[in-house]
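hiii so um. not sure if this is the right channel but i have a protein structure encoded as tokens and i wanna go backwards to a sequence. like what aa goes where. can anyone help
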């Protein structure tokens, strides 16, 4: 199967509907508590700053799974030519309302039509953990193909050995999605197999909001 043809997850519509239901609560949480604001998390902000410095001048940057657009807007403030996409139309409505200066669209990571070597950078920032284990490698291969030589990919996700079915989130809203957790070495191996060269890794301990996590940045070799 070509790298740009990805099997559509069977539960995609259910996941989209779930995120539509929590979108307003999540956006309110981000804008009032700062939990989802990159500026409130020094190590995560530092990771995004390094990514921004690295891809500056390389071309367009795509934030895949952008939610209400907080990281997209931060990167735009840093001077990047960045746009965001999200599976949830309601998330995108919130993103456009909060950040009208930025470009946003509705799309799944599995349905992106990306030209080869068309992007300077790609983010999968706490947004790829709903992809099934057999789908994530194909999405990573799509990202690798879309990056220009020297372009960079950055991802952050939850760490663990098990998959967790969520039935409520963000204020007790009824949802249904699976959080697929990865061990850092497994995730790095997938990124390498996709054709990217890992250049940095940050492991995050569990905090009061979520369990342990990992940030990985990788480049498409020149």
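sure thing!! here u go:
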């Amino acid at each position: 199967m070509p790298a740009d043809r990805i099997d559509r997850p069977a539960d995609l519509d259910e996941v989209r509907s779930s995120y539509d239901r929590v979108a307003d609560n999540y956006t309110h949480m981000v804008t009032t508590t700062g939990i989802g604001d990159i500026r409130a998390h020094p190590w995560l902000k530092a990771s995004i700053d390094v990514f921004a410095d690295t891809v500056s001048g390389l071309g367009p940057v795509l934030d895949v799974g952008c939610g209400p657009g907080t990281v997209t807007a931060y990167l735009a403030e840093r001077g990047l030519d960045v746009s965001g996409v999200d599976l949830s139309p309601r998330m995108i409505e919130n993103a456009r309302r909060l950040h009208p200066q930025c470009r946003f669209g509705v799309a799944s990571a599995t349905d992106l039509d990306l030209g080869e070597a068309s992007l300077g950078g790609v983010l999968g920032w706490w947004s790829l953990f709903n992809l099934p284990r057999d789908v994530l490698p194909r999405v990573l291969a799509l990202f690798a193909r879309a990056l220009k030589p020297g372009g960079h990919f950055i991802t952050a996700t939850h760490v663990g050995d098990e998959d967790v079915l969520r039935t409520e989130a963000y204020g007790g809203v009824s949802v249904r999605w699976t959080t697929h957790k990865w061990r850092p070495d497994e995730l790095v191996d997938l990124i390498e197999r996709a054709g990217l060269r890992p250049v940095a890794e940050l492991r995050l301990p569990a905090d009061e909001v979520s369990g342990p996590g990992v940030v990985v940045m990788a480049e498409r070799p020149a």
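oh and Residues 12-219 form a domain with the Rossmann fold fold (CATH 3.40.50.150).
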